[in-house]
């Protein structure tokens, strides 16, 4: 596996057009700038195609109290809107366009008679796909199985490539995301050793806990490609922006799960049956319904258990602790039926209102350890989003709180990443930073779920007839590169671009196959990189005990990252 990873990195470095970037430590700039990264730092961003000549590097200054309050209040309002299904809870009128088949389904497409597109799934992938299709003049309808939005894990990074896709789809969405976002590319990112670590027989460097191993410059690759720097935005805020600016009011119908669909033949469209018995008619069905996709189950003829209810909240989020416990068990069975892979990690996550001690120098860091690692990133508004990934079998759950142990999740994490002697179960005493964030997080805010991904669907494909899948339904990946949502955004853009070429409904199948062929090479590489990256991180300890191998691994990681980032931050997808 490790050899494969290095070969893949070497292959990326050899891709035509890739040139090495100068290795440099990302400077922390402190000259005057608006505390919002949206004013001066983004003042040169236009709503037309961006160019490197127009990009101005962001300048970091501490967030003001007004900015902190603005970010936190917007998150709370968006979360309330999501919980109330704002924009998604309109009552049926009975005359929705999707209820009635067109008299001549096999027909020419025009401005007056556009493509009719149904999207399964109202998470970020589905909302982006719908917004992209709407921007091209298509009729769109979203069917979301959830009763409300209950996102898992807090803010997400909208990296430079996804920002470019959003800018092309809808300039207003792009500007609103920029306005809401906090820049994370203006400070240091990278890998640290989580605890004091030597090498075999002392033949190598002695690492102290918290030492930097690799530092990443995510800014220069973006600027050189003419892309805006990465921002982090709360998921409910993104969802409300897409609902308000991307699609017509009433487009999303909640509590609407696809039970089955029927392809009606060349150019005749698709007939969709919902679990409540409703029938929908469309020219195109897009499955953006997540890793346990009903659309994919039907398309690939998988077992019925491949698409059970993972959670009642959109974006895979459990609405409460009891549902999270059920998800842990159900996901094991669904993964077998859906041919998904358990990553080997359970993940604890939280967003905590805490001004990190290193916030002005570091935006993203990973503390590495034996069979576990800790990830933290600036969430904006003087908040930190953190993840603790621990290698263990799937399906595990924590004890329920009791009077003697009211905080079982928190107590486990404090022990797993113990920063006091005698250390964790391996005898390792961890860097203080993980404990700093744990101590600032209430038990009720800590969520847990097992992480699943999947192999690239090279042979099975993403499209069949008038039906296609996108996002996690097509390419679920580990979170190490932060590209899951970003690749779903690229999918939505490319889907709409290809469907916009359709002049007759008989062209739909060819357009969807073109979408698949254009997207599969890129997403396959990114899926593999994310999976290998996760495996390499958790096996770091074993590698560092071997003289020469550890330093070589670090060297290859440092050298390869500019190429990987340039591959990720391409302006074309």
Quaternary: single chain
Indicate the proportion of strand residues. 15-25%
The strand line-up of the biggest sheet is 7-6-16-17-18-15-19
Stretches with pLDDT under 50, minimum 5 residues: 1-53, 311-316
Question: Helical region count?
Answer: 15
Overall geometry comes to globular
The CA-CA distance between the termini, in Å, is 28 Å
- Helix-strand category: alpha/beta
Mean pLDDT: 86
Q: Percent of residues in helical segments?
A: 25-40%
Tell me the number of strands.
21
* Cα Rg: 23 Å
Q: What composes the largest sheet?
A: 7 strands, mixed
Give a quick rundown of the structure.
This protein is α/β, with parallel strands linked by helices and 573 residues long. Helices cover 34% and strands 18% of the residues. It contains 15 helices and 21 strands.
How would you describe the overall organization of this protein?
It is built from 15 helices and 21 strands. The protein has helices at residues 2-14, 65-83, 124-135, 160-169, 171-180, 219-224, 235-245, 294-299, 321-338, 408-416, 432-439, 484-499, 508-538, 540-544, 549-568, and strands at 116-120, 139-143, 148-149, 156-158, 182-183, 188-193, 212-216, 231-233, 252-253, 258-263, 270-274, 279-282, 284-287, 313-314, 341-352, 362-369, 372-378, 384-391, 447-453, 463-464, 467-469. The protein has a seven-stranded mixed sheet with strand order 7-6-16-17-18-15-19. A six-stranded mixed sheet has the order 9-2-1-13-21-20. Helix 3 (124-135) links the parallel strand 1 and strand 2 (139-143). The longest helix has 31 residues, at 508-538. It is globular. The model is unreliable at 1-53 and 311-316 (pLDDT under 50).
